[in-house]
Amino acid sequence: MLFPDDFDITHIEANDFEFKKSETVHVTGRSYHGLTFRLSGKISLTPDGSDKKLYSDKSCITFVPKGCSYSTDIIEDGRMLIIHFGTRDEHEELTPFVFKPSCPIAFENMYRSLVERYRSVGGRRDYVCLSMVYEIFANLIHELNEGHGHPIPKRMRKVKSFIDESYGSRDITIASLSESCGVSEVYFRREFRNCFGCSPIEYIKKVRIENAKALLSTGMYPVSEVATRCGFDSISYFSYEFKRKCGESPLEFAKRYEYGTVK
């Protein structure tokens, strides 16, 4: 079991943290679990008693269970979002792991919203903060369970990375993506769904919407500019897709961040 589905949380802390390149550091087992999302940089982590190094870089989620001692090398300067949490149950069988989710921006947004809320209320037991943590857990467990038990072909990993980085381009089409993989459109659609659990069109929309949420939450961009930056052909289509996915309009979503905190 990588990550339990029955954690009973007693308290949480959420923050962001910058780290600098350094030689090996030994960390003694702590009295809480740690679940981080890496925004940038790269580290290696070796649990005591193991000769297997885990590598965590940009967009990776890293779990270190309570009581686990480990050595870490900070290979590159970077920054991460952190959740520390205590539980009533022990789960002594847990081990550290590193996992890169299929849609990192969705997890980044969930982490950022949690950190903002935690800072605004400072609540180790705030119900909204707890619900945000459980939402992250639920999505992580879903991905781990769906987890792609079969290897993902290199061409599919490359096309997914291309979408993640070029989501703002209106030139992304199924025809161009399938051509880059050297397969037919029909085969490409089928293989993409088998690898990532959704159609390529659904994934493109998901990445665009999640990046739109990140831009809107800054309060720096009008809805029209966000729509353009995220690759939508029109504000009306962007607003339709945003409301369909998020349950509220882009303007309603942005208003919740007007004063720098999640309302």
Describe the structure.
The chain has helices at 104-121, 127-146, 154-166, 174-181, 185-196, 200-216, 223-229, 235-246, 250-255; strands at residues 9-19, 22-27, 33-47, 54-56, 61-64, 70-87, 97-99. It is an alpha+beta fold. The chain folds into two domains: 9-146, Regulatory protein AraC (Jelly Rolls), CATH 2.60.120; 154-255, Arc Repressor Mutant, subunit A (Orthogonal Bundle), CATH 1.10.10.60. Strands 1, 2, 3, 4, 5, 6 and 7 form a seven-stranded antiparallel β-sheet that branches. Strand 3 and strand 4 (54-56) form a beta hairpin. Helix 4 (174-181) packs across helix 5 (185-196). The two termini are 36 Å apart. The mean pLDDT is 90.
Protein traits:
7 strands, single chain, seven-stranded antiparallel sheet, alpha+beta, 2 domains, Arc Repressor Mutant, subunit A
Tally of separate helices: 9
Order of helices and strands: EEEEEEEHHHHHHHHH
CATH class designation of the largest domain:
Mainly Beta
The CATH superfamily of the largest domain turns out to be Regulatory protein AraC
User: How many domains, in number, for the residues?
Assistant: 2
Q: Within the CATH hierarchy, at the fold level, what is the topology of the largest domain?
A: Jelly Rolls
Which descriptor suits the 3D outline?
globular
Q: How does the major sheet shape up?
A: 7 strands, antiparallel
Rounded to the nearest angstrom, the radius of gyration is 20 Å
Q: CA-to-CA gap between the ends?
A: 36 Å
Percent of residues in helices comes to: 40-55%
**What would CATH call the architecture of the largest domain?**
Sandwich
Strand content: 15-25%
**Total beta-strand segments:** 7
The average pLDDT score comes to: 90
Q: What structural class should be given to the helix and strand makeup?
A: alpha+beta
- Contiguous uncertain segments of 5+ residues: none
